[in-house]
């Protein structure tokens, strides 16, 4: 059983919060290994992430009980998890598989501490080949204008049956229903291109080329009912020059999309992301 744990919490800011948490851990012989906190003066909210170790044999349930009591007293929204416990993650992908391939590779070499519960794709040609080597359950769920609700119901069933805790849209090019994303609030991550200025619709990289952009980027965010406007977890950009062709932009776009998505997924898996309204607090390593 793990002796290292991660505690995350948020609440309305008030004096004594850090002392209360530290005192609770001290009561159970908890040794704080890393602690980060943030006071948002705009919203009046307090956020904290603590990594701590318990002596062998120390019962975690007793600590949970005391945290529950303190949580009620101080209005804490808190979560406690063993540091080495992986989260079951479902990966959704459509035609373009560069983000999926990157996530699977990073998982294979130990960079992403997740348990891949399965892969869902409405375009199986390339995605299926990526799953075979790792013996990951693969679900081909084709979608049309007539079966969208039924297809989404099947995804829900896979989530429930597999115990999925995180859903990653690794270039899954379908709009999810409001009810679906509402049920997955804070547990569904998407990646999309992020240009300055922004270009929406078909062939965004070609639109950017026509406008002569000098910078492209990507954004990873939690999915909400507002398309591509959920709380942002991670972003990055890359310079573009006049010598870059549309194909160059597509190539560079693929690279930055997979980097940004994998970083966002890692932050979530390590309990570094706390929701703050339509924004996030990200406690980076």
Fold and architecture overview:
With 285 residues, this protein is an alpha/beta fold. The protein has 2 domains: 4-82, 2-Layer Sandwich (Alpha-Beta Plaits), CATH 3.30.70.260; 87-282, Formyl transferase, N-terminal domain (Rossmann fold, 3-Layer(aba) Sandwich), CATH 3.40.50. Helices cover 35% and strands 30% of the residues. It is built from 8 helices and 13 strands. The strands form 3 sheets. It has a 7-stranded mixed sheet with strand order 7-6-5-8-9-10-11, sandwiched between helices. Helix 1 runs antiparallel to helix 2. The chain starts with a strand and ends with a strand. The model has no long low-confidence stretch (mean pLDDT 92).
Q: TL;DR?
A:
This protein has 285 residues and is α/β, with parallel strands linked by helices.
**Judging from the principal axes of the Cα atoms, what is the shape?**
globular
The CATH H-level superfamily of the largest domain is Formyl transferase, N-terminal domain
Number of strands: 13
Biggest sheet features: 7 strands, mixed
- Write the CATH architecture name of the largest domain: 3-Layer(aba) Sandwich
Individual helix count: 8
